[in-house]
Amino acid sequence: MSVLEDVDELIERYQIGLDEFMKGYPEPVKGLFSHREDVTLANPLGPPAHGWEQVSATIEHAASQFRDGRFVSAEIVEKRVTAEFAYTVWLEHAEGKVGARDDVAPSTLRVTMIYRPEEGKWKVVHRHADPITTPRPAETVIQE
């Protein structure tokens, strides 16, 4: 397989894992992350996690907040792949029951992911996701 095919396979596996994640099962997503100490995760439910122990716990906590959901699609904004490094930026569409809600609600996240090969397999080394998908006034960044 080419490097591009390897990265595309990881992305596909990640998106399949997201389908399970939206049902409350973190393991398929966790298995695709690097387990090294420089792995990072910044999700919309809490502060950034650094190192495998924190990232693993953060993924588990985040998955516990979802049920009866599914990954819908991803709109790729950008993807770059080299032999040593790759990244994607996408809009991630999903739906599910979130927190204590009983209704299935749609969600869209702006996602940046960074990948690298480790011992012959591509792994996620960083994921940042947030709900900012439309323009906002500058004042929205002020914390009061």
Features:
144 residues; alpha+beta; Nuclear Transport Factor 2, Chain: A; 6 strands; globular
What does this structure look like?
Helices cover 24% and strands 40% of the residues. By secondary structure, it is an alpha+beta fold. It has one domain: Nuclear Transport Factor 2, Chain: A (Roll), CATH 3.10.450.50. Strands 2-1-6-5-4-3 form a six-stranded mixed sheet. The protein is globular, with a radius of gyration of 15 Å. The model has no long low-confidence stretch (mean pLDDT 96).
Largest sheet, strands/sense/barrel: 6 strands, mixed
Tally of helical runs: 3
Overall CATH architecture? Roll
Q: What is the beta-strand fraction?
A: 35-45%
- Helical content class: 10-25%
Q: Indicate how many domains the architecture comprises.
A: 1
Topology of this protein?
Layout lengths: L2 H19 L5 H4 L9 E3 L6 E2 L1 H12 L2 E16 L4 E13 L6 E14 L2 E10 L14
Parallel strand pairs: 1-6
Antiparallel strand pairs: 1-2, 3-4, 4-5, 5-6
Offer a concise description of the structure:
This protein is an alpha+beta fold and 144 residues long.
